[in-house]
Amino acid sequence: MAKKRNWIREAVKPENKGKFTAKAEAAGKSVKEFAAEKKDAPGALGKEARLAKTFEGMAKKKSPLHTHPRS
After folding, report:
1. Residues 11-68: pLDDT tens digits?
2. Which domain holds residue 20?
3. Which ranges of the chain does DSSP label H, i.e. alpha helix?
4. Domain membership flag for residue 29
5. Which of 21, 41, 17 is nearest to 29 (CA)?
């Protein structure tokens, strides 16, 4: 059986961490807004934007059932 790979760790190289966020801040937008705007862009920028949208969908969402401040 093949070894299970953690593709998320390999998706963004250490030297590229934070570059998309910096581009979004330079444009005066949040990462979410910038990714939505640039997702259809050609080349590396579009690829980064689509990856950001993927990561956005993977983020943990808090359950509305856990609204207590200590939970």
Report:
1. 888 898 899 999 999 999 999 999 999 999 999 999 999 999 988 887 776 666 766 6
2. 16-57
3. 7-11, 19-26, 31-38, 43-58
4. yes
5. 21
